Each structure stands twice: as structure tokens, then as C-alpha cells.
Amino acid sequence: MSNYWNKKINSIEPYVAGEQPAEGVRVIKLNTNENPYPPSPACQKALEGFDIASLRLYPNTDAMAIKEAAARAEGVAPENIFVGNGSDEVLALVWQTYWEKEYDQDKAVLVPEISYSFYPVYSDFYSVRCRKVPLRDGFAIDAADYIGVPNCGIAIANPNAPTSRVMPLEDIEKILKANPDSVVMIDEAYQAFAEDYVSAVSLIGKYKNLIVVKTMSKAYSLAGLRVGYAIGDKELIEGLLRARDSFNSYPVDRLAQVIAAAALDDRSYYEETRKKIIATRKRIAEELKTLGFTMPESGANFLFAKPPVPLKAETLYKNLKAKGILVRYFNKPLIGDYLRITIGTDDEMDEFIRNVREEIDNAKNS
Description:
Blueprint: H1 7-11, E1 28-29, H2 41-48, H3 64-74, E2 81-84, H4 87-98, E3 109-112, H5 118-125, E4 130-133, E5 153-157, H6 169-178, E6 183-187, E7 210-215, E8 228-232, H7 234-244, H8 254-265, H9 267-290, E9 302-305, H10 313-322, E10 325-326, E11 328-329, E12 339-342, H11 346-365
Parallel strand pairs: 1-10, 3-4, 3-5, 5-6, 6-7
Antiparallel strand pairs: 2-8, 7-8, 9-12, 11-12
């Protein structure tokens, strides 16, 4: 608390990111859903060819190089793309652009009870009422819970985080049809790792109330660059532009535009990397199940796993951390028995499994 802060800053509970170890400290980092593989070699080539003198000039306001590359990757027109400084900035602009700043019960944005924990933070910060919708058995999101419910908008991460569950495209379409007057935001940060899921981008031309948000932090290995984008009807994109230009007209720097565009255009590397992560995820899921873990089927680059009795999630998290292996533990109701485990390289995951086996043996023998 501070006398110098306003009421909002004094009362708000900020988002808490995953632990970041100090530079130079060797850990196996499986706690923040980063890609374990380097960015496309095309990024290095673009970096080497970058004209450093150009940094004296402001960047292209609309990040046209990224817009055009993202349009090619997503199969839409450039005018259907909005680019921001990381998907978190894009999400923040979604909250500012589409959803009413009222505390009327009928003017709430609907979000899953367990989801990306930044959503309620945005709602508090931008004074948008947030209504958390309970999940069904197995952490499932049921489309029926978003139909016939008064709202000013709907925000769903798909695949969901931290649960890793995937909502079928037909269920998203049901929600869109039932809420024609509300903007429905689908956050597809992890969509690249869901094998059988067709992106909601395929519905953009059919529904004017759909906005899909994507990040380059996960599948493109560019978490350190901070680039994200949204895909939607031109009217929705124009709204985001109006909000951006009332806040910061130059959000994506020149260097980021060059590197991100190069990554988006290297489709073969993108496919190679995401398929490696999917294969490792499947293998590790089976090994954990063999060890007694339970978990939903994952469509993300992480697993949401409950350790076997008598091993507790918090204990395993702390013991692994002491051994230099970071996973994510959420000390919250409904999910306090689970760990979120990012998929690393095969060697990293083998080391993880070896240490988990040791912890299970120790728990049984104590």
C-alpha cells in the first residue's frame, strides 16, 4: 500500500509470471511454456542483414511486414491482422476496445473459472466486470454455459491454460451463433500444439464478432521478442487500431518486425519444431501415466498433471526446484493438486522423468 498510488493500484492484484532464474544459472526450465528449440535460422539471417542505422527512425506503425507474413500464414487478408507488442498487449487492447467499463451484472465478460490468470487482472485494471464460469468434469469448457447468459463479451483460451484442454471448433461456433452482439475472443496461444484442432481463424469470414489472438512466443520460439497478433473482421481490427493509437502508435520496433516476419514465413521450420514438441509431449504423458500421474489430454506444449499418492504437487514442485528443475505450481483452489509441466527437449524431459521417479520412490519409502 502507498499513499502515492491511486485506489486502483492499491487494490489490484497483479498477474504473477512464472519464475525466471538469474542469467547464467543452469536450470531445466519447464515452468513458463517457452519453446525449448531456437528460433528459425531465417531469424538469424534477418538479424545479420538488419541495418542498425534504421533504428534512428520510428518503425512502421502497422508492422506491415508482420501483417503480411501473418496473413500468408493464417490464410487471411492483411487488413484482418492487428499486430502488438506481445499477445498480452493485444489482449489488453481487446479488453479496452470491445467490453463495457461498467459494473452492471449484465455487462460482464465471461471467462472460464480456471484459465489464463491475466484475464481477471485485465478486467480489474480496465474496470470491466468479470464473471467466472465454472468448468465441467475433467476441466472441460461447456459451450452451453456461455449460451443464454447476459454478457458484454466472452474470452476463452483454447487450448486452455493451465488445464491444456481443447474445446472443439463446433462448440466455439455454437457460442458465436448464440452471442451475435458480443465479441468472442479466442486466445490461441497454444493452438499450434493441438493436433486435430482446426483454428478458429477458419470462422473469421463467417462471424463478425470473432477475434482470435495468437502469440509468437510459443510455436515460433520468440518469447524474448514480444510479438503477438489478432485476426478478425476489419471492423474489429479497426477498433483495436483506434485503441492502440490512443495509447501508443509505435508498439512493435523495427528489429522485431524484421525477425518476426522471417519466422512466420519459414513454415517448414515451424512444422518441424511443433511436431517435435508434440511427439515429446505424448511420450512424457505416457511415462507419467505409468508412474501413476493423472492428467487431461493435452493440446498444448505442456502437461497439467496430478502426482500419485502419497506425493503432493507442492512437495514435488519444491523438491524438483531444489534439484534445478522448474515446473509451475498454482497454489489455488481446484488446481492445487496439479503441476503444469512445459515440454522441453527430449534430454531435458528424460532428466525430469528420472528425478520424478526418485521423488516417487522417496515418498513411498518415507
